[in-house]
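pinning this so it doesn't scroll away 📌
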Amino acid sequence: MMSRLLRGKWWLAVLCLAIGPALVAHAAPTAPFTVEGLGKATVALDGDWQFRPGDNPAWASPTLDDSAWEQIKVDKPWGAQTHFGYTGYGWYRRHLKFVSGAGIDSELALLLPRIDDAYEVYWNGNLLGRHGKLPPHPVWYGNIGHPMLGFGKPTEGVLAIRVWKAPYLSSDTGEEGGLYGAPIVGTTQAIQAYRGSLGYRWLSGQLFFFAVDLLYLLILVIGLVAWLRNRDQKVLLWLSLWACAFLLSTLLRNLRIPWPFAVSNGLGQSVLALADVSMWYLLLNLLELNHHRFLPRWTRVLAWIAIASGVLDGFVVSADMSGPHVQALQIADALISVPATLVEVWPLVLVCFAIGKRLDTARWVMAIIAALTELTIGIANLSGQGARFTHWTLGQRLFMPLFTVAGTTFALIPLLVIFLLLAVVFAVYRYTVAQSERQVALEQEFRSAQELQQVLIPETLPALEGYAVTSAYRPAQQVGGDFFQMIARPDGSALLVVGDVSGKGLKAAMTVSLIVGAIRTVADTIDDPSGVLSVLNRRLHGRLKDGFVTCLALRLDAEGECAIANAGHPAPFLNAEEMSLKGALPLGLDPDSAYEQIHFRLAVGERLTLYTDGVPEARNSAGDLFGFDRVRSLIATQPDARQTVEAAVAFGQDDDITVITLTRLAPGVESTTSLLAPALVSSSA
């Protein structure tokens, strides 16, 4: 019985399937939204819209029955209503009916609110326009203002908006997606006027921040120019990079330039990393921690981590988010965000290590604000990670408006960044002024040392009976650590002392003044080279602070009789052969050191060449040393002191250079002396 009944009703099922779509297509449409009062006015298409997740191009048709679709508000995104965490396609539809009135026959336009992310707009099934590009290979934009679309003549119909929401990133709350406000309809003139008022309101609210950006630009230009003039002022370089990072961030995110999201957010991650790293190095220098035993190294390591995280995160968020690899990209985004967020605490670490240092108030204020700002941003970023699962809102609240002044809204983190800017500018200004004053004082000290050294190394040397003497001295810096003294004695003999203080610059020059004074005092009572070195050694012991002095003492008379003693100094050349001298410790290391002297005779025409280690240690651009072999070959050509020094300098001076030559003359030949010293060099230049 049942089987016959079913067989008898088969035609009824077929009939339902055949006429069902027609019945649906001709079912009663959703009640339209009545648009009235147009003319010069605009109307917000608010209230309930028909909404359906998913995608079907046929849903743009005005004949589609959408009465079974759910209703949703358009004053907030779908994620904040009934579709938390949903990404992909969603359709909005609204049936519109225009009531006749003044100006109603004019061309209409549609002003669209913010819509996440890419979308298309249809009127009665016809595409009015699109923003971005839908999958595959989607493209969407960030902060771009309010797009405007021509709407045509007012006729009854259906407005449909097809939206595609990109997959969520690690810091998204899950409440995004779709429309953030009601579309506005009106005549073209009215919409243009309304859009202009919105733009003016936005611009008025940004004037203060644009002024701040101009300050960043000024800091960038002045800081960069000042650094190019003085490359030693690394603080100015890092200040310029920090200002540059904020300018780039504004250019990418705040100026309503239609950058694709892949560009604005992708590059934005790297720019923020640059801002963080620049601030770390500013703190490292301003807090005088750049000579700490491990802080510079760890700052460099964390800087590379921050930059690498920013670049990788930018690559991830700019990748194609519509393919099957979306979940892998989301996991990668979350994992990369962890180290990028944790390193935000590094400024606080630097400030802690600076406690106890004697710094001015400006630098302490800057350091505290920097640590507080970076820590607040780090907390906001950390609390925002996985927000759609944890539902933490702390990160959002830190960016929420606190108050409004003259149309400009201020939130906590932007306020902290502004205070940080002012503190950094003032601290860097005070620091550079102090550095300039210190540099002036140091230059004055160098000038004083140079004047002292020019007094200690006279412009002329005494004539030595029976000898032709040439000497040349070229410090590696403004002042140097080489010294030589030629002291004539009443009996016709002379004492010649040449040496080299370890180190360079002002400290070495001050030691030279001590040594020269001691030599002149000792020479009045002692003419024995070994005795001179012994007395100098005892006087220098304990005064050099881990330094030392190599020294060679020579006594000679008109008949060519010579005595020489060595304290760790390069042996002189007798003609073209290096003399064999017994080695001994340099001066200042052991107060009980003994110095052996040897006696020899210079024949007529023979030459003795004394030099400091600046000659063999000259180094060219390839890193090669001049070396003792080149010294030996050079001495074999019998150059005078000036020629030897010039050869070493031309190869690549790396240390102070002193050279002295003594040539035994035949009886009756007039003695000569020649000196090339810093005072003579500057006067001839």
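📌 and the second one:
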Amino acid sequence: MFTRRWFLGAMPSLYALARKNALAATSSPQEYHVSPQGNDANSGSRSRPLKTISAAAARALAGDVITVHEGIYRERVAPPRGGTSDERRIVFQAAPGERVEITGAEIIKGWKRWRGDAWKVTIPNSFFGAFNPYSDVIRGDWFDPKGRVHHTGAVYLNGEWLAEAANLDEVAGKVSGTPLWFGQVDEKATALCAQFPGADPNQEKVEINVRQTVFYPERTGIGYITVRGFILRCAATPWAPPTAEQIGLIGTHWSKGWIIENNVVNHSVCCGISLGKYGDQWDNTSANSAEGYVKTIERATQEGWSRERIGHHVVRNNTIAHCEQAGIVGSLGPVFSIVAGNTIHDIHVRQLFGGAEMAGIKFHAAIDVEISHNHIYKTSLGLWLDWMAQGTHVTGNAFHDNQNDLFVEVDHGPFLVDNNVFLSGTSLRVNSQGGAFAHNLLCGITHVTDFDSRMTPYMKPHSTEVAGYHDNPSGDLRFFNNLVAQAGDLSAFNQTRLPMQLDGNVFVGRAKPCAGEPEPLVKPDFDPEIRSVGVGDGIQLNITLDAAWAARTRRLVTSSLLGTTTIPNLPFERADGSPVRIDRDLTGKQRNPENPFPGPFEQPEGGKITVRAAAMTSAEPKS
């Protein structure tokens, strides 16, 4: 009887679903309009707009467009369905020229002065519903709380966040540096105390985190969605290790084919944009072990981790800032994606907590991923490629004012790093093999790990299928035609366990060559006069080059020159299988194929040059 009742009850919904899918395949695309002055009972036309983005998402089918008009939308958008292909996506877009903000925060009034510059407000727990960020503790694999408790809640004064205090006494004290807040939650209410020096919080814009995320599907597999032109802010995001579900302020949630472009993403307690892993009962149970992540990979394969079902996202031309774990994070989910033209800054700058996942971009399994023309600065680590960077192409990026610019960890390659500008005190941290570095400007020191015993995977070509596992000896790296200046130092590679290939590199000033390079061009008396200045969200680089460097013939960097990697035994090639040919410089200028100029700028005549932001960090939209 129970079985029959279930079956009869399911019939209408199955019929409705089939009918809906049929309509989606045959109906003309619709455009839904959303406005703060709208009503969710309206049709969604331009003259009768909806009030919430969520109401439009509930109606939209493959091929439809949701245009959101100027205003602040305090909601979490969780699309219930996606598109069916690149040609039939669901597009969420801000109306051209209009300022549209989606936020996970709510305005709070009713503050009462407590002590000095500290104020207090008490909020019933019913205000938060099922999720209260002020009792939600940050925890998980590879997380370091630094001896105290942290929560996903936050308090904002006029758009800028305060810092969570370790205890109430700190808030009662004198304001020193960033103002503080502290929360206490009991069975009925949440009490927040916060410092507002020189300000009345009831007269200013004071907000608190309420939602865990801002734009993130409830279910996996919601693909082919475009999110364009929004300001996305203030999320109580959880810690996002590679072994657990990775929830960002905006995230793709284990799907395929998203485009996230031209947005401003900021003030996420942990991660800004997530291209990462789904969640399951094994989340945060790895005991911080490599074996735990190997099991994660095995389970992900069972959950559909494949070229056909996961990845292929495009994240371009966004500004991502003020996230305390990562600007863009992704474990396994970023495969076959493009991350281009983004400005990423102020990531993990407060350092209230720590862990092994902090970076402007932190990817595990960047298989056939292009990371190009991004501007990354003021981060603990600019770009961190951890495990399975195979077919990864890092090109044309500008890094500066980071604690470290690029870290490649336990990757077997092949991965290619070319035409980048590394200006921070530490350019490279290398604990990998099978990589190639060509035509970069390296201004910082290099750290090299001699041997890492962890057994980490390498993949079949252009695939998520594991071909084998290997430990991580140093070496099997190629350095061709780089310009190494200031504190740049390749002598860390003087002794490696696997052979190195080095040729055509130039070392100026204090820069040190690797003993393995047969004839490095060393010019200790030449000053390239490198200066970088911020220009808006971009960068301007001034540098002096020497025409004499062109007197020595160098080889064009190609697949043939780079050869095959030692451990995977694979050639260097593009994501589509075509051969590598570094025949253009950072700005797109054609290189001399008979004798390319060293460094990221093809300027054989030498002299002083100024390269502005648009030339270095722009990503032209693709269809």
